[in-house]
Amino acid sequence: MGTTYRKQEAKEVAEVKSEEAYNLRDLFEVGLKDIYSAEKALIKTLPNMVKNASSPELANTLQNHLTETKEHVSRLEEIFESKGIKAVAKKSEAIEGLIEESKGIIAKTEIGAMRDAGIIAAGQKLKQYEIATYDALHSFAENLGENKAANLLAMTLNEQKKADAALNEIAQSNINFNAQKQI
Fold first, then answer.
1. For residue 105, what are the contacts with CB-CB under 8 A and spacing of at least 6?
2. Given this model, what pLDDT does residue 178 score?
3. CATH 1.20.1260.10 fits domain 21-181
4. For 22, 109, 128, 183, which has the most beta carbons within 10 A of its beta carbon?
């Protein structure tokens, strides 16, 4: 019993140490694992947002972003592979909190413009987290001379910004106005 416990404890300590960041490269790798986890979580969450959107334009935009998110995961896996790092997801506490918030919005609103406005707001919060993370990782990659990673991260960053702008455009086109009328 004692030996098994010590082996488990040593394994846990090793896992924690592997996530510590002693330099920019470590911080880059920890960030990659975090956003990898976030993207994988979004692949599970976006279908629920699509299903609960009443606006065909919103549902289509979210569905398109689900397709892009799968590509983001592939790009991250390509970065991990090129660096010789195992593609491991480090639980993203921030995304998990934002996902829970989006679930709460869906649960507490009736289908229609109000729910759509809430889905858009939740989606934009998720986008802002992704934009901030990809922006930082892109900068790290450039500073580390990781040109391939920098290029892949820049592509994803650009797509995240476009997705955020698309959500904003949908909200401003009529959803927020129609949600206001539901009060």
1. 115, 118, 119, 121, 122
2. 86
3. yes
4. 109
